[in-house]
Specification:
about 425 residues; five-stranded mixed beta sheet; about 40% helix
């Protein structure tokens, strides 16, 4: 089957800009892993006539149509009714779903209104996709050569439903023999355009496995995807491609899948048995917040100080008044002392400091985006890194924290 897929998101809130259509992004990624081509994304409001028109347009150009949203109990949840009328399939009650809904109201000691039963209606003959995190089940069926799949709108319901049941349906229905295996490689410290340039010939020659560069929030990711009936062979194809890519850009590689620089840092701190403390000026505690958001932070984080003013730097952190007067807070010398003083104060193995100008105006004669990161370690000379970042105030702060994590990861990787 030559799969031509269209995703139709239903909901006026999407058109009004009240929420982002993250469901379409998620589904496109999932479908790509299955080897299904997504040709169109459509968004339509809670209007039966316009939804029916969108369905008819999709029927002319697509043979897999996936709907998200409009399966709920309210009168503007009209996806099932409109599809039922358009494809000529009656709606019937799914007994299991109805019993689940009734039991939910019993357990919560609430009275179930009649319209809640509407969520248990399904297209006659459809394969039911269980909703493990909500009430309205999903469904899928084929009519006249076109596959229709209906999924709920809330991402917390839709994502697990598709991953646990929707993917299996497509694999069975479309007779996929090849297994789709993917791997995400994460890079930091290299721009998307430079990374693409460095591996352009690999991208140009890709067949199986394929490689897709993706940029995101100061980082670059590569999604590698291989197809083979034998999953072990698919993984070996990915291993070979990863090795070839990292032979060129491996110095910027830091992890796989959904990891982050902060997660990799904390893993290394635990693995190496090292402790850390932080002195934060322009980042305002952002580094410490990211570290403490992860489990087990008490094993390695001794503490942190947000020393935003020169008074706090001098009085609490013991940064030399002469240093502040001669070089200023936004300086290599200040970053060095901040890192060294926080390490001494907290009695940690490593001290890190962040000072700079996030904006919106220059400070101490330094332009917006000037940043210094200091790293002090016992028995080694303190290192200070200087940057000139562009972007918004928050963007500069985010990049500062990521670079701090990046250099700490490199430092800990080199420690025996």
């Amino acid at each position: 089957m030559n799969v031509r897929t269209e995703i139709i998101a239903v909901g006026s809130e999407l058109l009004l800009g009240q929420i982002v259509n993250s469901n379409a992004q998620f589904l496109s990624s999932q479908l790509a892993e299955l080897g299904m081509n997504v040709y169109y994304h459509t968004v339509v409001g809670d209007n039966s006539a316009r939804l029916e028109q969108a369905i008819k347009i999709a029927q002319d150009r697509s043979n897999v149509i996936i709907f998200t949203g409009g399966l709920g109990p309210t009168k503007d949840d009209l996806t099932k009714e409109t599809i039922s009328r358009t494809i000529g399939k009656e709606l019937v009650f799914d007994q299991e779903a109805l019993e689940y809904i009734e039991q939910y109201f019993v357990q919560t000691k609430r009275i179930m209104s009649e319209n809640n039963k509407k969520q248990a209606l399904v297209l006659d003959g459809a394969n039911i996709l269980k909703n493990d995190y909500g009430m309205a089940p999903g469904m899928a069926l084929e009519v006249d050569g076109t596959i229709y799949m209906l999924l709920p709108g809330p991402p917390k319901e839709m994502k697990p439903m598709f991953q646990n049941y929707g993917r299996t349906y497509f694999q069975n229905q479309l007779g996929f023999q090849e297994k789709i295996t993917s791997r995400v490689l994460r890079y930091f410290g290299i721009g998307e355009s430079q990374l693409e340039t460095d591996i352009q010939d690999i991208i140009d020659e890709q067949v199986n496995p394929t490689v897709a560069p993706l940029a995101g929030d100061g980082e670059v990711t590569l999604r590698l995807t291989a197809k083979h009936v034998d999953e072990n062979i698919a993984n070996q194809l990915l291993n070979d491609l990863e090795q070839k890519i990292n032979a060129r850009v491996g110095e910027f590689f830091y992890g796989y899948e959904q990891t982050t620089l902060a997660k990799e840092l904390t893993k290394l701190l635990v693995e190496k048995g090292k402790t850390i403390s932080a002195a934060e000026s322009l980042t305002g505690g952002m580094f410490s917040e990211q570290i403490t958001a992860l489990d087990g932070a008490s094993q390695f984080l001794k503490g942190s100080i947000v020393c935003y003013t020169n008074e706090m730097k001098a009085q609490v952190l013991n940064v030399s008044i002469d240093t502040l007067a001669k070089f200023g807070a936004v300086s290599e010398q200040c970053a060095k002392e901040m890192a060294e003083q926080i390490r001494k104060l907290a009695k940690s193995d490593i001290g890190i400091s962040f000072t700079g100008v996030a904006g919106p105006k220059p400070h101490e004669g330094q332009p917006v985006g000037t940043v210094f990161i200091g790293i002090a370690t016992q028995g080694h000379e303190t290192q200070v890194y200087k940057f000139h970042f562009a972007g918004t105030r928050n963007g500069i702060r985010v990049r500062t924290v990521k670079y701090g994590c990046h250099y700490l990861v490199k430092l800990l990787t080199e420690i025996e």
